[in-house]
Backbone:
C-alpha cells in the first residue's frame, strides 16, 4: 500500500463481516499506528498496526479476519493489498478521550483518598466500592456488575463534609455479610458503620441502619477494617486517632459494637501523623507499612512490621514482629513507642548523603506509602514514593516524585526505583502523586499514574519533563523477576482529563481489574471526578 499522504485511503477490518471498524490516519493513537514505508530499495509499501478485536482460535486453530478498503480523502482507495499479520490480544487505547475501549464509568461523581482500605472489593461476583460525592458532600457506597455494566447506589453515610478523606472501607464478615465503615476528617471523635443484612446486599434495603461509635479519645480519620479467621468473630479496624497516631479498635460482635480504641504507634506530640497502609491474609496475619510522619513535615523513612495471631486463636493475643520475625512486643502491650526505638524493619531510609543508585535512596528524598500486598509466597510487597523539592526550578511543580517497588525476599527488603511520577497534583499538597497500586491477586502487576512525558526513563532524576497541561496518564507494569525489571504498557493515552489514584479491588478474578478517578482534582476538598473501571481477561496490554 502507498505511504499515507494528503489524499489518504481508509481500511475497514474486523472479526465479523458485518461489523468492520474503519481505520485511517486520523484514528486515535492505540487504535491504529502507521509504521511507515517498509525497508528496501524503492519500496512503496507501508505497514499499519490496528486493533480489530481480541479473538479466540477455533478448535482447529483458525481465526477469521475480514478486511475491506473504502474511499479515503478525495475518493482515493488502496492500490494493492498484500496480507495480514496478527499479534497477541491487547486492551486497546481508544479514541474516547484517551480511555481504554473496555473502560466503564461506575459513577459520575466520586473520589477517594488512599488511606481507607479496602475501599473496594469483589464479593459474590459484584464490585462494592466506597467514595465521596461532591454533589451531596457525603460518603457513599455502590455496587457494580461488570457484566451488565450497571451500578446501583446503596446508601450514603450521614457525614456531611466535602473531603476525600471520608470514603468508606469494607470488610467481609465470617458469615458472608459486608461491613462498611467511614468517618470525618479530623473533626469528630467518632466513626460510623453499616452492616448488610445478607451476603448479596445489592439493594439499599439490604443494609441495616447507620450506627455511630462516639466518645473516642481522639479525632478520627481513615478506616481500615479487617478480619482474621483464626481469631473467630473478632474484627480489627485501624485509624488515625489518639495523638493523631495510628490507633486500633476491635469488635467481638461482628462490628455491631466496638471497644474503645488503643494507640497502636506512639510518635510525636499530636502533629507528627505517621501514615500507614494495612493488609491482612484473612487468616492469621496483618502487615503494616508506615512512615515517621507526613513528608511535608518529616524526613520520612518507611518501616514494615506484621502481627501474627497466637496459635491458640485468642483474639488479639498475638505478637508484633519485624519483617524477619524478630519480636517487637505483644499486641496487648501497645502502643509501640516509635520515638524510643520500637520500630518495624526499615524498608526505605531517608538520607542526606549521596547514593550510588536511586535503587538505594535519593539524597534528601522523603518517602510516602501507597500500597501493600502479598506475593505468591505470602511475603509482603509494597509500593511507595520518594519526593524531592525544586528539582527543575523554584516552583512547586518543579518538585519531582519517584515510584518504588519493594519486596521482602525472606532476608531483606529488595527495592527498585521503577517509574517517574512527575510532579504533585497541586501546590499545597505537592507530595500528592498521581497514585500507585499493586494487584493483590498478582503482586507482579503494578499500576501507576504519572504526568511525566516518559515515566520509564530512569537514568536521570533531574531532567523529567511533564506532559502538556501536566496531564496524568495510567500505566500497567508487569515484572517477571521479582521487581528487578518491569515491562510497561499504557492504559490511557492523550487523555482529555487526569487519571488518578488507581486501585485494584480485593477478590477480583480478572487479568486486569482496576478502578480509578478521572477528572479535575484541585484539592482534597475541591474536586470533580468520576469513578472509572476496567475489568478484562485479555492476556496482555498494548505496548
Residues:
Amino acid at each position: 500500500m502507498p505511504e499515507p499522504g494528503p489524499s489518504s485511503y481508509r481500511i475497514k477490518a474486523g472479526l465479523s463481516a458485518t461489523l468492520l471498524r474503519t481505520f485511517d490516519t486520523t484514528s486515535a493513537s492505540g487504535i491504529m499506528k502507521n509504521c511507515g514505508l517498509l525497508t528496501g530499495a524503492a519500496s512503496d509499501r507501508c505497514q499499519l498496526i490496528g486493533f480489530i478485536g481480541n479473538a479466540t482460535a477455533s478448535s482447529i486453530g483458525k481465526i477469521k479476519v475480514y478486511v475491506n478498503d473504502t474511499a479515503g480523502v478525495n475518493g482515493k482507495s488502496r492500490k494493492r493489498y498484500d496480507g495480514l499479520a496478527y499479534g497477541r490480544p491487547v486492551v486497546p487505547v481508544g479514541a474516547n478521550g484517551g480511555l481504554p475501549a473496555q473502560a466503564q464509568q461506575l459513577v459520575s461523581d466520586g473520589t477517594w483518598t488512599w488511606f481507607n482500605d479496602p475501599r473496594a472489593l469483589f464479593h459474590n461476583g459484584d464490585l462494592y466500592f466506597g467514595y465521596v460525592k461532591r454533589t451531596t458532600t457525603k460518603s457513599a457506597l455502590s455496587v457494580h456488575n461488570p457484566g451488565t455494566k450497571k451500578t446501583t447506589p446503596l446508601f450514603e453515610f450521614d457525614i456531611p463534609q466535602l473531603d476525600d478523606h471520608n470514603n468508606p472501607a469494607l470488610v467481609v464478615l465470617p458469615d458472608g455479610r459486608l461491613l462498611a465503615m467511614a468517618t470525618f476528617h479530623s473533626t469528630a471523635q467518632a466513626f460510623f458503620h453499616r452492616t448488610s443484612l445478607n451476603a448479596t446486599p445489592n439493594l439499599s434495603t439490604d443494609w441495616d441502619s447507620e450506627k455511630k461509635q462516639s466518645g473516642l479519645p481522639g479525632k478520627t480519620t481513615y478506616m481500615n477494617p479487617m478480619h482474621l479467621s483464626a481469631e473467630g468473630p473478632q474484627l480489627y479496624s485501624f485509624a488515625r486517632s489518639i495523638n493523631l497516631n495510628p490507633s486500633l479498635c476491635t469488635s467481638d460482635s461482628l462490628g455491631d459494637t466496638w471497644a474503645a480504641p488503643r494507640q497502636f504507634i506512639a510518635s510525636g506530640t499530636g502533629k507528627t501523623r505517621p501514615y500507614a497502609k494495612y493488609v491482612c491474609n484473612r487468616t492469621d496475619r496483618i502487615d503494616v507499612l508506615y512512615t515517621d510522619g507526613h513528608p511535608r513535615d518529616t524526613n520520612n523513612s518507611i518501616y514494615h512490621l506484621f502481627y501474627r495471631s497466637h496459635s491458640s486463636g485468642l483474639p488479639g493475643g498475638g505478637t508484633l514482629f519485624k519483617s524477619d520475625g524478630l519480636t517487637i512486643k505483644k499486641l496487648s502491650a501497645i502502643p509501640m513507642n516509635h520515638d524510643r526505638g520500637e520500630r518495624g524493619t526499615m524498608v526505605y531510609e531517608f538520607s542526606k548523603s549521596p547514593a550510588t543508585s536511586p535503587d538505594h535512596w535519593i539524597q534528601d528524598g522523603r518517602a510516602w506509602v501507597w500500597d501493600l500486598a502479598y506475593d505468591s509466597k505470602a511475603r509482603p510487597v509494597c509500593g511507595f514514593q520518594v519526593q524531592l523539592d525544586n528539582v527543575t526550578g523554584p516552583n512547586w511543580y518543579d518538585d519531582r516524585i519517584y515510584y518504588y517497588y519493594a519486596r521482602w525476599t525472606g532476608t531483606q527488603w529488595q527495592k527498585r526505583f521503577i517509574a517517574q511520577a512527575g510532579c504533585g497534583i497541586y501546590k499545597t499538597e505537592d507530595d500528592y502523586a498521581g497514585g500507585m497500586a499493586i494487584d493483590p491477586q498478582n503482586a507482579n502487576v503494578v499500576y501507576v499514574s504519572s504526568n511525566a512525558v516518559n515515566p520509564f526513563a530512569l537514568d536521570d532524576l533531574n531532567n523529567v519533563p511533564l506532559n502538556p497541561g501536566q496531564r496524568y496518564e495510567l500505566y500497567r507494569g508487569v515484572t517477571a523477576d521479582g521487581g528487578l525489571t518491569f515491562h510497561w504498557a499504557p492504559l490511557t493515552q492523550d487523555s482529555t482529563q487526569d487519571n488518578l489514584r488507581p486501585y485494584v479491588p480485593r477478590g477480583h478474578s480478572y487479568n486486569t481489574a482496576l478502578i480509578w478517578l478521572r477528572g479535575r482534582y484541585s484539592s482534597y476538598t475541591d474536586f470533580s471526578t468520576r469513578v472509572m473501571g476496567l475489568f478484562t481477561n485479555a492476556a496482555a496490554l498494548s505496548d
